[in-house]
Every structure is written in structure tokens, then in C-alpha cells.
């Protein structure tokens, strides 16, 4: 959208959140704060309250959650977050649409394949139980859609291009790649 205006807010640093009704769309992006904890930092509590308030009182403001934002929206609205029982997800993960996902995205589920699409993922936690009125569009609750509010969330990174993935690896501090060993 060439005429779109983008404003960035950093509640962890500046403790400021926008007036939600001023925006057509609010995107909650990645982060590392552990949303499985019972006690949350004040900035996280404030962000979750902002999500709930925006969903309930700003019908013209859509919400997108990506990665940590996916988990934050789920928790804010009453869902449950857990450490991924399948282990950390780092890389491109194959996913299958649910019946509702096929209806939403279009197309059909190819029964001859165990994959409908693939998405880059970098996370160790996931949505164990979606909040009420959220329906999974893909397996493992990795993409959720609210039945009433304008909310869609993605555990993976649909925005991540090959260039972005390479930049993350090249900026690595040793967590993703062991620089002491040759990479093949």
C-alpha cells in the first residue's frame, strides 16, 4: 500500500502505546518475553490489556499478531501458551490447512501430500489452547482467526524473505550457527 503510513511503538522501552482508534491496523511483532510465566513484566501486562481493549472497543482497527504477537494476542484474549512439546522451531516448517483454513485462504487440501505450505519459524513456545472464538486456520494453532473481531495471527513469519533469513544468520552471535565448524 503505497500511501500507508507506518508508525513504530516500543512499549518495552518507552512504555507508550498508541490510541488504537487512530489506526486501520495494528501489528504486534516478534519478541522473546516468555508468555508462559504467571507474573508478567508491567509493559507486557499493559500490552495485553491494550490488545483486549482494542479488540473490544475499536471495531474498525484490525489486529495482526506475528510470532510473539501471535502468542500475545492469544494470551490477552484468554488463550494458553506453552513451551512447544515438539522442541524449538528454527527453520521452514511444513503446515497443513484446517477445513476453515481452506475456506479462508482458498484452494483445497492435497491429500497426497503432508504439506499445504511452508513458513519460516523461530520460536520455542506456542499457543496450546486458543482463546474462545479463535479458530485455527492451520494445524498446531499456528495461524488463528477470530470469528467476530478483525484479528488474525501467525506463529511463523510470513513476512520473512530469504534475504531477511540470511541477514539473521550472518548477524548470528553463535546461537544459530557455530562459527567454529564448517557449515555445509
TrEMBL record:
It comes from the Eukaryota. One of its GO terms (cellular component) is cytosol. This is Glutamine amidotransferase-like protein chyE. The gene is chyE. Pfam families: GATase (PF00117). Residues 22-164 form the Glutamine amidotransferase domain. It comes from Fusarium oxysporum f. sp. rapae. The keyword Signal does not apply. InterPro entries: ChyE-like, GATASE. Keywords: Glutamine amidotransferase. The keyword Hydrolase does not apply.
Amino acid at each position: 500500500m503505497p500511501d500507508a503510513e507506518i508508525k513504530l511503538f516500543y512499549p518495552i522501552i518507552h512504555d507508550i502505546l498508541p490510541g488504537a482508534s487512530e489506526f486501520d491496523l495494528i501489528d504486534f511483532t516478534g519478541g522473546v518475553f516468555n508468555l508462559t510465566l504467571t507474573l508478567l513484566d508491567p509493559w507486557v501486562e499493559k500490552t495485553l490489556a491494550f490488545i483486549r481493549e482494542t479488540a473490544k472497543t475499536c471495531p474498525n482497527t484490525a489486529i495482526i499478531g506475528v510470532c510473539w504477537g501471535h502468542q500475545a494476542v492469544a494470551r490477552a484474549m484468554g488463550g494458553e501458551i506453552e513451551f512447544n512439546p515438539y522442541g524449538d522451531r528454527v527453520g521452514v516448517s511444513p503446515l497443513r490447512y484446517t477445513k476453515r483454513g481452506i475456506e479462508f485462504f482458498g484452494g483445497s487440501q492435497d491429500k497426497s501430500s503432508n504439506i499445504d505450505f511452508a513458513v519460516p519459524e523461530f520460536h520455542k513456545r506456542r499457543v496450546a489452547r486458543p482463546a474462545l472464538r479463535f479458530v485455527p486456520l492451520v494445524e498446531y494453532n499456528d495461524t488463528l482467526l477470530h470469528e467476530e473481531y478483525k484479528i488474525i495471527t501467525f506463529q511463523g513469519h510470513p513476512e520473512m524473505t530469504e534475504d531477511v533469513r540470511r541477514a539473521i544468520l550472518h548477524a548470528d552471535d553463535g546461537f544459530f550457527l557455530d562459527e567454529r565448524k564448517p557449515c555445509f
